[in-house]
Amino acid sequence: MSLLLNHPAALKKAQAEMDASIGASRMVAADDVPRLSYLQCIINETLRLYPAAPLLLPHESSADCKVGGYDVPSGTMLIVNAYAIHRDPAVWEDPAAFRPERFEDGKADGLLLMPFGMGRRRCPGETLALQTVGVVLGTLVQCFDWDRVDGAEVDMTEGVGITMPKAVALEAVCRPRAAMGGQLQ
Ligand code: HEM
Fold it and tell me: Which sites bind heme (predicted)?
């Protein structure tokens, strides 16, 4: 929501997708999420810029191995900096920019996006998490018009932690959309 408030054109585009694919006679449901392609692009782009677990979880090598030419002995703690990988300018064009369109039409397929980790210890809750985020964000976009408080840019400064909190909690103004009145009673 913070990124959408700072990028009103993306918010309008998400709302238009919601209106075209679902309309106002019912609220977005879990099985709508897979076909809301722009909403998915927004979620991917948000998890790219602000992965909830920026260093994933610590891993330990179970055998001697080589990673990127470095010898890694068995029993070494390995930390993967997904935050840096997601902002690598060699991979992502204009990496600091919020641009959900970079994920449209499979354009980012094959690029290293790993907010849920990779391999055998990848997050087992990924499907549930993406479905839940899709329904919650989709509902907020479908049912309300959003504005920043006094028009001021939302502060995106990152706080400190194993997960990445916002340093300044989000405050925003929302108004029920007239067309959704029937659903919000
Ligand atoms: C947006 C939401 C979520 C994000 C961004 C997320 C991200 C992650 C990440 C980065 C890891 C570590 C992967 C690695 O180090 O390779 C992880 C592990 C894990 N996640 Fe999630 N997760 C989310 C939601 C969930 C949910 C909803 C569940 C359960 C219902 C869940 C259960 C787990 C478990 C059990 C592990 C440990 C897996 C293992 O070590 O084998 N996560 N998650």
Answer: 123
Percent of the chain residues past pLDDT 70, beyond the cut: 100
pTM: 0.96
Q: Ligand 1 in contact with 26 (CB < 6 A)? A: no
Task: List, in order, residues 6 or more apart from 56 with CB less than 8 Å away.
Answer: 79, 80, 82, 114, 117
Q: How many CB atoms lie within 10 A of CB 48?
A: 26
Of all protein residues, the one whose alpha carbon is nearest to atom 30 of ligand 1 is 125
Residue 163 CB–ligand 1 contact under 6 Å: no
Which residue CA neighbors atom 29 of ligand 1 most closely? 125
Q: Where are the beta strands (DSSP E) in 4-105?
A: 59-60, 65-67, 70-72, 77-78
Which residue ranges make up the annotated binding site for heme? 123
* Segment 104-143, tens digit of pLDDT: 999 999 999 999 999 999 999 999 999 999 999 999 999 9
Query: Nearest to residue 127, comparing CAs of 21, 26, 54, 33?
Result: 33
Q: Is 58 in the pocket of ligand 1 (CB under 6 A)?
A: no
Both tokens of residue 29? 């449901």
> What's the token pair of residue 139?
């509902």
Backbone angles phi, psi at 91, to 5 degrees: -110, -45
Distance set, CA 73 to CA 19, 59, 82, 116, 171 (Å): 55, 13, 22, 25, 48
